[in-house]
Amino acid sequence: MKSFPVLALSAAISFSALSTTAHAGTSADAVLKHYGDIAQATFEDSLKTANDLKISIEALLDKPSEATLTAAKNAWLASRVPYQQTEAYRFGNAIVDEWEGKVNAWPLDEGLIDYVDSSYGSESDENPYYAANVIANPMLNIGGVKVDATNITPELLGGKLQEIDEVESNVATGYHAIEFLLWGQDLNGTNKGAGERKATDYSLTDCTNGNCDRRRDYLQAATQLLITDLEEMTANWQPNGAARQELAAKGEKGGLSTMLTGMGSLSYGELAGERIKLGLIVHDPEEEHDCFSDNTHNSHFYDALSIKNVYTGEYKRVDGTVLKGPSLSALVASKDQAVNKQLMSQLNATQGYMQVMVDEAAKGNTFDVLIGSGNTKGNAIVQDVVDSLTSQTKGIEAAINALELDKVELEGSDSLDNPSSIEAG
């Protein structure tokens, strides 16, 4: 890898026309079509599991109990598996990247949504809505700005509250808002344990923590909005959908650059940097991606798998079938077999290190535990993941060179490029 500046890696490489045929007869056009087919399948699976989540949440609200709450939590966890495998489509595809914040924005200031523990605090210099508690307050008046939250609807959440006052941590929608509503705050710090919300927070007859009717409304509205947003992106990846048209307009070399941009930016700046190394530097569980449920190990695992899916042209659907087709791997092999072999080895190594993290979580050593200050063994496990992701990004850069693509920019991260600028915890 040449260098990774804080904002982007610019690989300005002279371009010579790609051959229209490649390894084993694979064409660039076929690879790009199959890339779109995998995107279509992963978003379809994300939509299906979101609808399954809605059914489980309806069952919870119909009969609040620890059993129905657990079932809703399990449905949320299942919904993360396909969605995280869409993440490698973000950075190269503007239509996905501009939309993603609706469904997967994090971290969030949960006091905007519902009650929080006193340790959370009541105000923030950066966010006037830090503890607004929409569920408890039908009318909000913050700094003279009035928001009517009498009726909690998808339109209120997505149209008025999401990133209100242009504060990114005012996350009112998406997976993580729903996660908070199902688990509640995780008050365990870097010790074992996730959030412990009670099912009676949704009971109309035995309500705990007040405003159960409005909490029910918020959970239903957030879930419906998630489905609506996923319907939009699923439609975009259908044949002749907007995402497919945007990709096709880039031409073959532009499309291949899009694929590698998504792979490399997720691998380095986003996953290795912002989602993993930052938390390791500051030892702060607030930097955990799925911080209420302690599901971060799985989110990271499937993020990494999404990178591999794009390269190998394979995706295992939620029904167990495997979608296979013309791959970027074959195209790279047609140019330089050694580069392809090396990158495949690096991708497999990353999944191996991710699996170690998943196995630790099964013992109760979830991501927030592993990054804890003084947890030498846990820190080393997480650092192995960062190192492997960084190594595979070098392999992705080599693939960019092998395909002789013109100017590919990969996201960087202060956590990796300028760690001294970050105050350690």
Topology readout:
Layout: E1 8-11, H1 28-62, H2 66-84, H3 94-104, E2 139-142, E3 145-148, H4 154-161, H5 175-183, H6 212-236, H7 242-248, H8 251-282, H9 296-312, E4 314-316, E5 322-324, H10 328-335, H11 337-362, H12 367-370, H13 376-402, E6 408-411, H14 414-417
Antiparallel strand pairs: 1-6, 2-3, 4-5
Helix pairs in contact: 1-2, 1-6, 1-8, 2-5, 2-9, 3-6, 4-6, 5-6, 8-9, 8-13, 9-11, 10-11, 11-13
Brief synopsis:
The protein has helices at 28-62, 66-84, 94-104, 154-161, 175-183, 212-236, 242-248, 251-282, 296-312, 328-335, 337-362, 367-370, 376-402, 414-417, and strands at 8-11, 139-142, 145-148, 314-316, 322-324, 408-411.
Explained architecture:
With 425 residues, the chain is mostly helical. Helix content is 55%, strand content 5%. It contains 14 helices and six strands. It has helices at residues 28-62, 66-84, 94-104, 154-161, 175-183, 212-236, 242-248, 251-282, 296-312, 328-335, 337-362, 367-370, 376-402, 414-417; strands at 8-11, 139-142, 145-148, 314-316, 322-324, 408-411. A two-stranded antiparallel ribbon has the order 1-6. Strand 2 (139-142) and strand 3 form a beta hairpin. The protein is globular, with a radius of gyration of 22 Å. The two termini are 29 Å apart. Mean pLDDT is 93; it is low at 1-24.
